[in-house]
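Retro notes, structure queue

What went well: the backlog is down to a handful. What didn't: a couple of records were mislabeled last round, so from now on we paste the full input next to the output in the thread. Example, using Protein-export membrane protein SecG from Mahella australiensis:
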Amino acid sequence: MDILKNVLMALYIIASIVLIVVVLMQSGKTAGLSGSIAGGAETFFGKNKARTYDAKLKRLTKYAAVVFIVLSLVLVLLQ
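Corresponding output:
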């Protein structure tokens, strides 16, 4: 049982570091007037919106958050 806790704790630490890095790598929503005009045009005219760098980071953030929450609940239940 101690080995399982140690493995889960290591995965928990890795998931938390990944979550922090992915959130910090994302661009902000308010980039001033020029960023809002360019961003609006990009989302309106962009055909490959799901393939952009920001979209991939957003998807990775969702997965990392789910893994982090599930590992948190499992570690609490094991104690």
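Agreed that this is the format going forward. Reviewer comment attached to the example: The chain has three helices and no strands.
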